[in-house]
Structure formats: structure tokens, C-alpha cells
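Hi U.,

Before I forget, here's the chain from the pilot set. I'm dumping it here mostly so it's searchable later in email.
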Amino acid sequence: MYGAERGTRDGVPEEDREVAEVPEWGRVSGGGRAGRRRPLRVVEVTGPSMVPTLYHGDLLLVQYGAPVRPGDVVILRHPFQQDLLVVKRAVERRPGGWWVRGDNTFAGGDSTDYGVVPEELVLARVRARYRPLPKGPTSAKGQRSVTELLGWAVSAVRPVRSASARLRAR
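Structure:
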């Protein structure tokens, strides 16, 4: 997610709007009151900073207010452009906040450019990513084959795994 917010409604950025009621399994404990609901939302990735983990157009299921651990992929407000939401990997906690990095070292735009990100700017933890169904050709009836749909389903939904063992803060 690297681009200006598309708009707001009632002071809430379009990307931050809740898209569905949080199911019962969305309850988490720890940090605050036990059993408190934490909103799950869907956001879209734009830009290359997290390739190969995330690609332009991927959709992310994010949990706002979830505890962050080293290696988690997080949504944060850019420290210098507060209206810009970005997705990065939280590498380590440091005095004053989190050191964050993009998985694509050539894209830039992480803590190597702007330093430690204050804790209050880290908004959400990414729980899963899924790729939208490609807009490729379909059959004469406008349907896709079962094989094509199964292939997409197997590769489309993935948890965003921690990569803390392979990342080191600089």
C-alpha cells in the first residue's frame, strides 16, 4: 500500500472502513480487556515494496489493534505523510517504536529512510493475503473451468508468515 488515500467518509479513510461483521472467531485476548473484538478489515496493496511476499493488487485481511511481534507484516501511517498508509514488516522493537522494512530491498521507503516508526503509527497486523480472481478469458458461457478455479483457490489465500529469522535491522 503505497499511495494517497482514495477518500474518507465520516473522517475514516476508505481503506480503513470495516467491510463485514467480525465473526465470533475474531475475538482475541491479551492487551486490554480479554474477549474484546478487534476489527477485521480488507485493504488493497499498491506498489512493489513488499515483493515477493505481497504483490500489487493483493488484498489483505488486517486486524486493527492486534499485538505486533517481530516479523509481522503491519499497516502503518507513514511518519512524514500521515494521510498515507503503508504496509511493511516489523523487524524489531526499538526505543521509540518499531524498525520496519519492506521485503523488496530495492523499493526503499522504510525505516532505513525515515527511522523508527512510533508505536501509535502502527495501526494493524496483517493476518492473511489473498489474490483476486484474474480477469482472464472464460468459456463461451462466461464460466471458468473447475481446474482453473481450484488452481486459483490453492494459490490465492495464504497466511502472511513471519520472516523474523531472515530479517535483520540495520
